[in-house]
Design brief:
588 residues, alpha/beta, Rossmann fold, Luciferase, domain 3, GMP Synthetase, Chain A, domain 3, 8-stranded mixed beta sheet, 29 strands, 32% helix, globular, binds 5'-O-[(S)-ethoxy(hydroxy)phosphoryl]adenosine
């Protein structure tokens, strides 16, 4: 769909008033200097995100409005967040957690996730997050590679950690969240005591025992602060490390793109297992002092509208699949709610089709503003801004402080409207600082002086960037980044499967779905029941969101002479496309 540019009549004064002049005059050096508030040019991102608010005029302002899956409600001020995370920081110290040690959060979106993230980073340890949908294999890969010393989880999820504990020699302690104590602790500091399983301690017992005063670790801006595992085409997931100064770019981008202001109630629908939930729930947006809503329940259009209405959400950051699902539920449903509090909408994670941008106007009288970034970039790099006209379907223009370009194989810029590799000039504050324990993987991101995103794009004559597609086999399903190798490994561990090839198949609602082509062991009869059994197996073994929605049984898979399964061929077959060069092909 080709649509006309949207020229907006804004009902508010945007933080970024003039894109061109801000872009031209922008300098991160000065901002980093301002944000390194400790002597000797030191900082701590948890201090920037939380404590500085707790120490100032925002101390009694609500930092977090939380609504649980069963409708439970909690509120935490910046001061409470600061004190709770101090207690956890002290508890970790008493467990001998030192600077640079890894502490992982295997949690649904509970308030303790936010408390823990802050507590870990305050003592200079590295906080890692894991989706609660992960099964034992996904957990083992990540906890083993990271060498996590402590894991924070819930009683329900604990059983999955227990299954793999024997393979995690570096894991020393598990902190269990006892949610029956949440309300009591906040109101009376009175706990219901129960015995914790072996090697486990109760979260709230730790908070009760430890002091609420903590000397925050003063860190170099380039010291590691948090890590996320993400997928590439080959190999196991990579541990992307971000440093303390990431918050500098996350805060400025939240100011420019999300347009966060003092009285905003901000809702980001992302899970902190994903980089968006860290950069724009815990860090950038809190650094600006926004009150944030977190909803731990599942997606439901009626519930989502109800939340916007009840909490009077003003700025809403979500993902294209969610927008398309809301659109499918009809604008008339949206009209049943009072959603007038909304003033600015943004979206990230996968291509935002023009129809989805326009649907925002139909349902909320506001367009969705697309923006583009990656786990590795630590923050937004290309975006649409409130003050700039939107060309529906375009990702927008580079953030102030970011140089983006479209280049050919030799790293040279191509002409406007010509497709090429999307690259960035290294050195912005939130650029990942390493891949954990895999230095060669890190080096591969850089070529001809550019950081290579792995995406293809073109830039039009007005400097707007347009997404074309991935340059590799990485799958994006409902915004989640899934590595085909991880799914293939899970499939071949199934007793009835010999080989598997996995691709992303275009899907109008979810962007892509995961499709697997598998060959079965001799004598195994293909059937619909077996497909379902395989799907359930991957769901449990790997992750709830990474199972193949479609499975096709094959006699053979296309392979190169060296035996590598050619996903490119499988994709071409699926889409009915030309197979391209098949000279190196062994079988099909
Ligand atoms: C894709 C997400 C099109 C892209 C924060 C990128 C997008 C990958 C957009 C990173 C967008 C992200 N339009 N594609 N606005 N935003 N992508 O690491 O392929 O989960 O490389 O981080 O998502 O995914 P990740």
């Amino acid at each position: 769909m080709k649509t006309k540019p949207i020229i907006k009549k804004l009902k508010f004064i945007p933080n970024l008033k003039n894109y061109s002049s801000t872009y031209k005059n922008f300098d991160y050096k000065k901002i980093i200097k301002e944000m390194t508030v400790f002597p000797g040019g030191k900082m701590n991102l948890a201090h920037t995100a939380c404590d500085q608010n707790a120490m100032g005029y925002r101390k009694n302002k609500v930092a977090l409005y939380w609504e649980g899956e069963e409708g439970q409600e909690m509120k935490y001020t910046f001061l409470e967040m600061s004190q709770l995370s101090n207690r956890l920081g002290n508890a970790l110290k008493s467990m001998e957690v030192k600077k640079g040690d890894r502490v992982f959060l295997f949690l649904p979106r509970v308030p303790e996730l936010f408390v823990s993230f802050l507590g870990i980073t305050k003592i200079g340890a590295i906080a890692g997050t894991l989706f609660s949908a992960f099964g034992p294999q996904a957990l083992e890969d990540r906890l083993q590679n990271s060498g996590a010393k402590v894991v924070v989880t819930t009683r329900e999820l604990y059983s999955r950690v227990l299954k793999i504990k024997k393979n995690l020699p570096e894991l020393k302690k598990i902190i269990l969240i006892d949610d029956w104590n949440r309300v009591n602790f906040m109101e009376e500091r009175k706990l219901t005591k129960k015995k914790a399983p072996k090697d486990c301690v109760w979260f709230y017992e730790l908070l009760e025992k430890n002091k609420q005063y903590l000397r925050v670790a003063q860190m170099k801006p380039t010291d590691p602060a948090f890590m996320l595992y993400t997928s590439g085409t080959t190999g196991k997931p990579k541990g992307v490390i971000h440093h303390h100064q990431a918050i500098v770019h996350e805060m400025k981008s939240a100011e420019f793109v999300l347009d966060i202001k003092e009285d905003d109630v901000y809702w980001c629908t992302a899970d902190p297992g994903w980089v968006t939930g860290i950069a724009y729930e815990i860090l950038g947006t809190w650094a600006l002092g926004a009150s944030m809503l977190v909803y731990a329940g599942r997606f439901s259009p009626a519930k989502w509208y109800d939340l916007i209405q009840e909490y009077r959400v003003t700025v809403w950051y979500t993902a294209p699949t969610a927008v398309r699902m809301l659109a499918a539920s009809g604008a008339s449903l949206a009209k049943k709610y009072n959603l007038k509090s909304l003033r600015h909408l943004a979206s990230v994670g996968e291509p935002l089709n023009p129809e989805a941008v326009m649907w925002g106007i139909k349902a909320f009288k506001l367009p969705f503003h697309d923006n583009y970034w990656q786990t590795e970039t630590g923050g937004m790099v290309i975006a649409n801004y409130p003050s700039m006209k939107i060309k529906p379907g375009s990702m927008g223009k580079p953030l102030p402080g970011i140089v983006a370009e479209v280049v050919n194989d030799k790293g040279k810029s191509v002409k406007p409207n010509v497709e090429g590799a999307l690259v960035l000039k290294p050195g912005w504050p939130s650029m990942m600082s390493k891949i954990w324990r895999r230095p060669n993987k890190y080096k591969k991101y850089f070529e001809h002086g550019w950081y290579i995103t792995g995406d293809r794009a073109y830039k039009d004559s007005e400097g707007y960037f347009w997404f074309v597609g991935r340059d590799d086999d990485v799958i994006k399903t409902a915004g989640e980044r899934v590595g085909p190798f991880e799914v293939e490994s899970a499939l071949v561990s199934h007793p009835k499967i010999i080989e598997a090839g996995v691709i992303g198949k275009p899907d109008p609602m979810r962007g892509e779905i995961i499709k697997a082509f598998v060959t079965l062991k001799k004598g195994v009869r293909p059937s619909e029941a077996l497909k379902e059994q395989i799907q359930q197996y991957v769901k449990k073994f790997l992750a709830g969101h990474a199972y193949p929605k479609e499975i096709e049984f094959m006699d053979n898979l296309p392979k190169t002479r060296s035996g590598k399964i050619m996903r490119r061929m499988l994709k071409a077959k699926e889409l009915g496309l030309d197979m391209g060069d098949t000279s190196t092909l062994e079988v099909f």
